[in-house]
Amino acid sequence: EAQVTQNPRYLITVTGKKLTVTCSQNMNHEYMSWYRQDPGLGLRQIYYSMNVEVTDKGDVPEGYKVSRKEKRNFPLILESPSPNQTSLYFCASSEGVSYGYTFGSGTRLTVV
Amino acid sequence: AQSVTQLDSHVSVSEGTPVLLRCNYSSSYSPSLFWYVQHPNKGLQLLLKYTSAATLVKGINGFEAEFKKSETSFHLTKPSAHMSDAAEYFCVVSVSTQGSYIPTFGRGTSLIVHP
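ok -> structure tokens follow
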């Protein structure tokens, strides 16, 4: 089944403790992206990647890192999480601009 | 630059009545346009897309959208609402410029369906 898999689904952590949210897709898509979703703000793009070793900032990149060492994986790294990063995070992949996204099921992160 | 405006944050309908969710966009280039649906505690699912072919686009679950370039609109419709349609709906505009691909999401419209 074609899918984007994110882990974990739920995560509660403390301020400053480094964490990684994994994302993997099995569709051989070149394009991958991370979004955060907050009430009243919709979805905002954090980082995106056009292909292996090619990443770029989205609208809200501060406090996040990404890497794209393999085509299928695009982890999101929070080096020193803060409470304002409490949010619902989605990973997505796409063949390109005309194809639309396939989204993961989301990761609900709480930073205390 | 591109932007998308969903004109209603909430739409309330009765089961069996028509649904209209409004979306206006702006784009300097020929856009691709999408509608996504998000059910509670779920990820986003692609409903339908417009990519410069037919202006009336049919999607899943009986939804349709019409691309109107003169009005810069891409409104989502369904003839008869079902309880299972209650969800959040997002309109998205996307263009490809200089090899970059950055979709822009609307803020969403919450569809409420009354029995």
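Residues 26 and 85 of chain A are 28 Å apart (CA to CA).
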